[in-house]
Design brief:
There is one protein chain. The protein has about 350 residues and is an alpha+beta fold. Helix content is about 50%, strand content about 20%. The chain is built from nine helices and ten strands. A four-stranded mixed β-sheet has the order 4-1-7-8. A four-stranded antiparallel β-sheet has the order 3-2-5-6, with no helix packed on it. A two-stranded antiparallel ribbon has the order 9-10. The chain is elongated and about 125 Å long.
């Protein structure tokens, strides 16, 4: 499948290359020569050589044809971060008259690269703050695009004149977007405002934040689990107390039989039998049985109500099909605060 996709992607890029070089006035001569060398190397499976040529061309000419070819070479060499970056550029810059089949192939190449990398979306206040990732300066906030990164731990640092710098560690996973919002505090420690975090999934720059839920479980799921559990408990109590009540009434009947044998019919109605320990046992066991049966009845009624409520939640509460398990990590330092929410893609 990988090879098939590579061939199709290559065909798409070859057409883009040919279209571009047919207009020499629009392409720098050196960049065009590097593109040709790279394409020749790619056609012969020399992907490292092709990658170096395309990368040099990209430094001179950041057009879609260069981005598409560099994305392909990066993908072949499993340089997934660069492949995702250039494939995103390729898709964004493709001409409007690009054939749907070619656009689809380019999109599939992007998706393949994207599935192998994580992404960090950084939102910072105040605007104009300098943003760093793993010590590399990215530019001034707001950043235009998500940052593709290798899966694993990364450090985000933000600085701004007259405000205390803030630093935050995030863990990126394949296919995920980690959204970190930072709001710097003033040099005197006064809060600059609120901050929070969200977790999104999907294509970077286009994914919409999902509603998060407590303890990593969607509210509908919490309701269904709790309702089902409480219904089961209520049924269990009903059955347990019903058995207890039945046993108590059986004991009362046994004691009554013994009293009848000793005092005659209706033994507990006579003066002699009523004061006996056997009749006292009869009365005690009957009361115990009646009490247990009463609790059993209440439990069964509660089970019915809970069961109906749970069923209603199941059928009437819309399922959150796009929800992901989300883990909230609130944090604070001496100079900034925020929340990072992380989930699965």
């Amino acid at each position: 499948m990988k090879r098939i996709l590579s061939v199709a992607w290559g065909a798409c890029l070859m057409l883009a290359f040919n279209t571009a070089v047919a207009q020499p006035s629009n392409v720098d001569t050196v960049a065009r020569d590097l593109l040709r060398r790279g394409q020749a190397a790619a056609n012969n499976g020399r992907w490292q050589e092709a990658y170096e040529s395309f990368r040099a061309a990209w430094a001179l000419d950041q057009r879609y044809v260069v981005a598409c070819n560099l994305a392909q070479a990066s993908l072949e060499l499993e340089k997934f971060v660069e492949a995702a970056e250039r494939a995103r550029d390729c898709l964004r810059m493709l001409p409007t008259d690009t054939k749907p089949a070619q656009r689809k192939v380019a999109s599939e190449g992007y998706e393949r690269a994207r599935s192998q990398v994580g992404a960090v979306r950084i939102e910072v206040k105040p605007r104009g703050s300098e943003v760093f990732l793993d010590g590399k300066k990215l530019g001034l906030a707001p950043l235009a695009e998500d940052l593709f990164v290798e899966p694993g731990q990364h450090v985000v640092k933000v600085t701004y004149p007259s405000r205390t710098p803030a630093e935050r560690t995030v863990v990126a996973s394949k296919g995920e977007v980690q959204l970190v919002r930072l709001e710097l505090e003033g040099a005197g420690g006064a809060p600059a405002g609120k901050s929070n975090g969200e977790h999104t999934t999907g294509n970077p720059g286009t994914g919409k934040p999902h509603d998060t839920s407590r303890d990593g479980v969607a509210p509908r799921t919490v309701a269904l689990i709790a309702g089902g559990a409480l219904t089961a408990v209520a049924v269990g109590l009903g059955v347990g107390f019903r058995l207890k009540g039945s046993a108590a009434h059986d004991d009362a009947a046994t004691s009554l039989d013994a009293a009848t044998s000793k005092f005659g019919p209706a033994p507990c109605s006579s003066a002699q039998g009523a004061s006996s320990s056997l009749c006292a046992e009869v009365r005690s066991k009957r009361d115990e049985g009646d009490s247990a049966n009463g609790i059993s009845n209440v439990s069964f009624v509660a089970a019915g109500v809970l069961g109906v409520g749970t069923a209603a939640a199941f059928f009437l509460w819309p399922a959150e099909s796009s929800a992901r398990a989300v883990r909230a990590t609130p944090w604070t330092t001496g100079n900034a605060s925020g929340i990072t929410l992380q989930g699965s893609f």
